[in-house]
Amino acid sequence: MLPMHSAFLIFASFAAGGLVNAASTEQVGFHTPGKQMKPSWGYTNCGEPTDIIQLRSLKVTPDPPQPGKNLTITVEGEARETIEEGAYADVVVKVGRIKILQREFDICEEALKANASVTCPVEKGEYTVTQTVELPREIPPAPFTVELRGNTVDDDPLVCLDIFADFRK
Ligand SMILES: *[C@@H]1O[C@H](CO)[C@@H](O)[C@H](O)[C@H]1NC(C)=O
Ligand SMILES: *[C@@H]1O[C@H](CO)[C@@H](O)[C@H](O)[C@H]1NC(C)=O
Hints:
By secondary structure, the chain is mainly β. It has two helices and eight strands. Residues about 1-5 and about 10-35 have low confidence and may be disordered.
């Protein structure tokens, strides 16, 4: 739930920062089956059934995401236990295979900053979280991946998610 929209916010603000421009000319392989059917975005839920957050779905509008437009992200998931302050996420953002960002984020703090509809402590239960971010117009035409690994304050696995988006035409 929370970590995802943080990842997108991070990704969006990073793209806006223009830091990705240097790397964007590198057209390294993007792991998608078959050139014709290349999806423009997607995600892999790399979590375990024992993780505290169980993702049900992740949708975006418009689909596919469009630079210069508002992107609304809707995530459905379940918190199997209460998520306390101190939960964190390790986020790696790559353009092609080039790592452009690696950072640890305080999930609860990011949720507050983003005015998320859900704040810590997050009680056990089913959630639908919707977040809108304005995607910068100048996102380079390149494949991005956001690798997100969330953990509780006690280092128990919270969520594992890989998101990819390809802005090549
Ligand atoms: C995105 O939404 C905000 C708030 O509703 C609005 O002010 C802004 O103009 C929108 N941006 C675009 C590109 O539509
Ligand atoms: C969150 O809300 C505050 C107060 O309404 C506003 O100043 C701030 O810009 C908002 N932040 C985001 C990321 O929307």
